[in-house]
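Blackboard transcription, Thursday session:
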Amino acid sequence: MYVIVAGGGKVGHYLTRALIAAEHEVLLVEKDRSRAAYLAEELGEVAVRGDACEVRTMREIGMERADVVVAATGDDEDNLVICQMAKRRFHVPRTIARVNNPQNVDIFHRLGIDSTVSSTKIIFNLIEQQIETDEVIPLAPLQRGNIEIVEIDLGPESPVVGKTIPNVRLPQNALVISVVRDDHAILPNIDVEFKQGDTVIALVSADKEAELRQVFAETG
Amino acid sequence: MNVVILGCGRIGSTLARSMAKDGHKVAIIDQNDDAFRRLGPDFTGDMVLGNGIDEDVLKRSGIERADAFVAVTNGDNTNIMSVQIAKEKFRVPKAIARIYDPIRAYAYQELGIETICTTVIGARLMKDYLLGKEWGMVSEYCALADEGAQI
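(Written on the board underneath:)
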């Protein structure tokens, strides 16, 4: 795959190294002269100096044959423009944007950027996993379609204990993907009866998470 | 009308003063306190200190009730992003961005974003002057094309 990484800060730099190690063709584009020189010293021809927001630069780096463009600069507005231009003008199949302000994730999706990575959001979710305030813990927000993987511990009061999956009224488009019991992961089939102490792993759209919580967890 | 202006530079402050003088409700956003000095002591609009691609700042400037949004910061990308936020998220009926880069201006015009490319307009006006031509209609000077504009 030919991957273009825009932005030679720490994120772009380490990403480039990882991609090279995985034997992809990579080009790292950095705007700042001295930073670009530093990167070129380490990475050679893989690192070039240029403003990835400029169409001229995009053409020079062969954006039209890129499989993926990753906008990894520290500025959301630059990342947005890079990805929009990559998609609309150069028809790059996949664009990934680093989003620094998690508030902006929504607008990026609305404007057609396939994948966004907000490290703030990821770290926030990791913290939430440590703090078991609810029995429903979001494990990972999957980027497309706002779907989350959630982990639910079934306590003694859980309304689904003793029931089988077909008898549980799941919210629309929610899916139980695994039941973890005594450290074994059970694939959910119609015979699986929920027991106290089970951990249910489910896929649910973000807007139905609360509903799912009511179905599985203690009410009130 | 209710207008929110992002960027209190030369064009932003001039526009803000003019609109306020005509009796419109103006809110102007800038990251830098000093920039508001350009508005002069008798400016009647609101001055909002903050980053214009931050939705909280935009809300504070009244974007939810705005009839129009103007993005005139020094950064093309900030202008492009903020206008898209204004239209997509806040459904502001009129939104326009000043974009310096002719190619980006054209590309976003194609995407339905109203843009003014002062670079191209200025260069064409000056060229006409150099060639001894009379200045014509502004709309002729605004036309953008792929690969920047042939002037």
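Lecturer's comment: The first strand of chain A starts at residue 2 and ends at 6.
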